[in-house]
Amino acid sequence: DIQLTQSPSSLSASVGDGVIITCRASQSISGYLNWYQQKPGKAPKLLIYAASSLQSGVPSRFSGSGSGTDFTLIISSLQPEDFATYYCQQSYRTPYTFGQGTKLEI
Amino acid sequence: EVHLVESGGGLVKPGGSLRLSCAASGFTFSSYSVNWVRQAPGKGLEWVSSITSSSSYIYYADSIKGRFTISRDNAKNALYLQMNSLRAEDTAVYYCVRDPSYGGLRYFDLWGRGTLVTVSS
Question: Could B106 and A97 be called an inter-chain contact, meaning their C-beta atoms sit closer than 8 Å?
């Protein structure tokens, strides 16, 4: 199975800050990497697919980059509604594994 | 508006069975692959199973292989997960998730609210 390792596991930031979350795959997954946001008690929400494509309706302060084994999610200017847990996911091959999550806190 | 609505969760004893359902609306269900993804209490996300639009290809996580069966009924816009030989570690919220499988890309763009399965004696 392809393992995904996110860093950091948790992150404290303030409104207006920029943050970077990284996701490293245990083998090359080309650009088959997606990012999701999950708030407590809610279903995850797709933010970025194929490493860098912004899902419709997602604010442009979210961006993604990377290929191969190293990927990043960047939030350029944190808004109050961005405090949540973020997961990366590979869709290169089954099982479609997720990273362990990054909890973004105030 | 597009929706996925899960049902069928509940409390079941170890070794028991449960059948989850997912009702799709607002889009052409038969054009999409669909998946089950679960989340144990306080834990991360775990992909469980996937079925392509015409049921031609089915995939399972090793953790549930041989115990769970995914199926779909495109005429009823419905997805199912038959869960047998349930274990305590299967306790989780189970999400029904759409995958557009667009241009060879796979991603989960629509999620249901989830249904809680609790396996306990």
Answer: no
Q: Per residue in A46-88, pLDDT tens?
A: 999 999 999 999 999 999 999 999 999 999 999 999 999 999 9
Distance CA A96, CA A106 (A): 30
Q: Enumerate residues 6+ apart whose C-beta is below 8 A from A19.
A: A11, A13, A74, A75, A78, A104
Examine the pLDDT at B110 and tell me if it is beyond 90. Answer: yes
Chain B residues near residue A23 by CB distance under 8 angstroms: none
CA B95 to chain centre: 6
Would strands B45-51 and B58-60 be described as parallel, antiparallel, or unpaired? Answer: antiparallel
What is residue A106's predicted lDDT score, i.e. its pLDDT?
82
Over range A27-33, report the average pLDDT.
Answer: 96
For B47, the closest chain A residue by CA position comes to: A96
Other CB atoms within a 10 A radius of the CB of residue A34 amount to 27
**Chain length of chain B:** 121
Q: Kindly tell me the number of DSSP H helices and DSSP E strands found in chain B.
A: 0, 11
pLDDT of residue A88: 98
Beta-strand runs (E) in chain B: 3-7, 10-12, 18-25, 33-39, 45-51, 58-60, 68-73, 78-83, 92-99, 110-111, 115-119
